[in-house]
Automatic annotation (TrEMBL), chain A:
<feature type="transmembrane region" description="Helical">
    <location>
        <begin position="261"/>
        <end position="280"/>
    </location>
</feature>
<feature type="transmembrane region" description="Helical">
    <location>
        <begin position="409"/>
        <end position="431"/>
    </location>
</feature>
<feature type="transmembrane region" description="Helical">
    <location>
        <begin position="301"/>
        <end position="323"/>
    </location>
</feature>
<protein>
    <submittedName>
        <fullName>Hydrogenase</fullName>
    </submittedName>
</protein>
<feature type="transmembrane region" description="Helical">
    <location>
        <begin position="164"/>
        <end position="187"/>
    </location>
</feature>
<dbReference type="GO" id="GO:0005886">
    <property type="term" value="C:plasma membrane"/>
</dbReference>
<keyword id="KW-1133">Transmembrane helix</keyword>
<dbReference type="InterPro" id="IPR005614">
    <property type="entry name" value="NrfD-like"/>
</dbReference>
<feature type="transmembrane region" description="Helical">
    <location>
        <begin position="74"/>
        <end position="103"/>
    </location>
</feature>
From TrEMBL, chain B:
<dbReference type="Pfam" id="PF14522">
    <property type="entry name" value="Cytochrome_C7"/>
</dbReference>
<keyword id="KW-0472">Membrane</keyword>
<feature type="binding site" description="axial binding residue">
    <location>
        <position position="54"/>
    </location>
    <ligand>
        <name>heme c 3</name>
    </ligand>
</feature>
<dbReference type="GO" id="GO:0046872">
    <property type="term" value="F:metal ion binding"/>
</dbReference>
<feature type="binding site" description="axial binding residue">
    <location>
        <position position="144"/>
    </location>
    <ligand>
        <name>heme c 1</name>
    </ligand>
</feature>
<keyword id="KW-0479">Metal-binding</keyword>
<dbReference type="InterPro" id="IPR036280">
    <property type="entry name" value="Multihaem_cyt_sf"/>
</dbReference>
<keyword id="KW-0249">Electron transport</keyword>
<dbReference type="GO" id="GO:0009055">
    <property type="term" value="F:electron transfer activity"/>
</dbReference>
């Protein structure tokens, strides 16, 4: 190993010549200025999709789940695929806000608010599916352990019940985490707005935040605790979602690799979704200085790592199928590759195994257009991953007499498309009325926040000047 | 910077908290009481096509329950008597109190039209209750239907909810009695009910099922 290494300072997290004031102005500008026409257009489109979703759900409840393309071997189709897909999308939000917070990653500040909002709305979209895919939605409250006149209680050994607890806890904690983070920023908006109504609204939302030392002291502790709680939560929630499959006996489902592999896939698709949205938002709202190329590159790196973890899992599934010597396991893998859903498998292979390999190249990682395309491909790939797991395994299992081909109906498709309406309706409301970047946190990672920023000696970075300090520290140990 | 909220806003959080506590308590208590079969089902006493009085027939005249409800020891379904049963007496006896009501029975007899009794004890069709299985091991009529001999109009006295069924299936000794006393109204056991109940449970080898299949197939 060469000894000729040197300290490479991390590039500044906020580009441009920003001061605290200009950062506040840049971010607070959007919620405080009049609504742009483009927003109304987007919001209208999202609302149309939302109404479509509500209509599809209404018809589903009225007519029954037979309007979907489910058949007897494949009792789980698009509803579960979409559920797992949306929950997966949501996971990047918590990863960015909680796990990266525990690792003291300053670059998370550019995107954490954005990603948390995405989590909340993605979990809302996901939460719809477990509720509506049941045949009798009106007795869905039986899943809750409430004392009742039937003396009946849910069965706590079903992973579908764990899903109820996992997803509802996940939603609640994500919402709290997001809200705690928003309090100081609501206070900023409260103090900046001229409108009386907005002043009162943001005033209520900011809960009387004054930004005192005591406020911040408690806030940081609370945020740290929530981050510490959200981290195991994010890992366990998608683990529990994976248990829906892994706990069963179906070849292609009964696999111990599912929990970590699902979590890796969740982070992979979640980061892709954050990237897709971020690359649009930073352009429209002029946030290129904050959501800059360096941040994008780091996200691409996370995507590359998790993408390769997922690819490793696919490889492992194939290997274990061969190594198990179990004909059903081998059969299902063989059917993945050349069977009736082989097209899905090869789309999946291309999107999730080939695509992340492009991210090894720095030029591609730092290219906005290519990243945007990759982020979309990844989400398509991750949808197909859940498709292959759910449908392909179910359609062709133990008894060939119970094999059938699954194809979705119009209502499957329209329900899935409709959830984008729900997602974007809320997301656009978020973009319009809330600070989409955590103002207080971004200020915390700017050079001006460093108490030594204005020191005479370290004002400009100089490797020679910092060296003695390091040596001194070593001597005192 | 001007003050946004008035002074009373200081008290808003406490008020909201108090309101929430009251609201939550009221909701839980309200649902607990008003949504339960104890409230919705107990006391159901619809108007019948004929003003038939159990109080008169089973109480004053002391007719045994099985005279009319003949199948109760043999069938899963306890029958409502056909017009034939009424006509056993009422082809000769005019109702002294309600001659018009008796006339309705005779009309039914002549016209061959069934009397459209209104069912009071209604279980959903996915719960398969069996009368014979209960009375043959000593569950008295009274335990589930109340003092029918005192009812002018039949009403539901027990909730018939699943937890009510299970309460007895889990602790049958509190309700069983000697089989010959099943139709006795106002039966008083000679010794302690629990003690006698335990003996009867052992004697008849009663093992009330609490698994799904026993009632829901």
């Amino acid at each position: 190993m060469s000894t000729d290494y040197q300290y490479v300072p991390e590039p500044a997290l906020v580009k441009g010549d920003h001061s605290f004031g200009s950062i506040t102005d840049l971010i607070a500008k959007t919620p405080l200025s009049p609504t742009p026409k483009l927003w109304y257009l987007a919001f209208g489109l999202a609302n149309i999709l939302l109404i479509t979703l509500l209509g599809a759900i209404g018809y589903l409840i009225w007519d029954g789940i037979g309007i979907w393309g489910l058949n007897n071997p494949a009792g789980w189709g698009w509803a579960i695929i979409n559920f797992v897909w949306w929950v997966g999308i949501g996971h990047a939000g918590t990863l960015i806000s909680a796990i990266l917070f525990l690792f003291r990653q300053g670059w998370r500040t550019a995107i954490n608010r954005f990603a948390e909002a995405m989590t909340i709305f993605a979990v809302m979209c996901a939460g719809i599916f477990p509720a509506i895919h049941v045949g009798r939605i009106w007795v869905i409250y039986w899943v809750f352990p409430i004392p009742n006149q039937m003396a009946a209680w849910p069965n706590f050994s079903s992973p579908l019940l764990w899903d109820v607890f996992a997803v509802s806890t996940y939603f609640t904690v994500s919402l709290l985490f997001w809200y705690v983070g928003l309090i100081p920023d609501f206070a900023t908006l409260r103090d900046k707005t001229k409108s009386k109504v907005a002043k009162i609204t943001y005033g209520i939302a900011s809960l009387g935040w004054t930004g005192s030392f005591r406020n911040w002291w408690n806030y940081e502790k609370a945020y740290m605790i929530l981050a510490g709680l959200a981290t195991p939560l994010v890992l366990s929630v998608h683990t529990i979602v994976s248990f829906d499959f892994a706990v069963s006996v179906i070849p292609g489902w009964h696999s111990t690799i599912f929990p970590p592999y699902f979590v890796a896939g969740a982070i992979y698709s979640g980061f892709a979704m954050v990237l897709t949205l971020m690359l649009i938002a930073r352009k429209i709202y002029g946030l290129e200085d904050i959501m800059n190329i360096d941040i994008m590159e780091k996200m691409n790196l996370v995507m590359m790592i998790t993408g390769n973890l997922v690819a490793f899992a696919y490889l492992m599934e194939g290997f274990i199928a061969w190594y198990s010597g179990y004909i059903y396991e081998q059969g299902i893998f063989w059917l993945y590759v050349v069977g009736p859903y082989a097209w899905g498998f090869w789309i999946l292979m291309f999107c999730n195994v080939v695509t992340p390999q492009f991210l090894w190249f720095k030029k591609i990682r730092r290219n906005v257009a290519i990243t945007f395309v990759i982020s979309i491909i990844v989400n398509i790939g991750m949808w197909f991953e859940r498709f292959m797991i759910s449908v392909a395994s179910l359609s062709t299992d133990f008894m060939p007499s119970a094999w059938d081909y699954y194809s979705p109906t119009f209502w499957d498709i329209i329900t899935y498309i409709g959830t984008f309406g729900l997602f974007f309706t809320f997301f656009l409301l978020f973009l319009r009325f809330m600070p989409m970047v955590a103002i207080a946190e971004v200020k915390g990672v700017m050079p001006q926040a460093d108490p030594h920023n204005y020191d005479e000696e370290t004002n400009e970075f100089d490797i020679e000047k910092t060296k003695p300090v390091v040596v001194q520290q070593e001597q005192t140990v | 910077m001007a003050q946004i909220f008035p002074r009373w806003a200081n008290e808003v959080p406490q008020r909201i908290l108090l309101g929430l506590i009251i609201f939550a308590t009221a909701t839980v208590a309200g649902v607990w009481y008003y949504f339960s079969p104890e409230y919705t089902d107990v006391g159901y006493a619809p108007e019948q096509p004929i003003e038939y009085s159990h109080k008169l027939h089973a109480g004053k005249l002391d007719i045994d329950c099985q005279y009319c409800h003949t199948n109760v020891f043999d069938s899963k379904h306890a029958n409502v008597p056909a017009t034939q049963t009424c006509m056993n007496c009422h082809n000769q006896i005019d109702g002294q109190n309600k001659p018009k009501e008796v006339q309705k029975i005779r009309d039914s007899w002549e016209s061959d039209e069934s009397i459209e009794w209104v069912r009071v004890h209604n279980l959903p069709d996915y719960a398969y209750f069996n009368h014979a299985a209960h009375v043959n091991v000593g569950v008295g009529c009274e335990s589930c239907h109340g003092r029918v001999d005192r009812m002018e109009v039949v009403r539901q006295v027990e909730p018939l909810s699943m937890s009510w069924c299970l309460d007895c299936h889990r602790n049958p000794e509190q309700n069983v009695r000697p089989v010959e006393e099943v139709t006795t109204m106002g039966y008083k056991p000679e010794k302690d009910q629990i003690e006698m109940g335990r003996e009867l449970v052992a004697k008849h080898n009663i093992a009330p099922p609490t698994y799904c299949q026993s009632c829901h197939y």
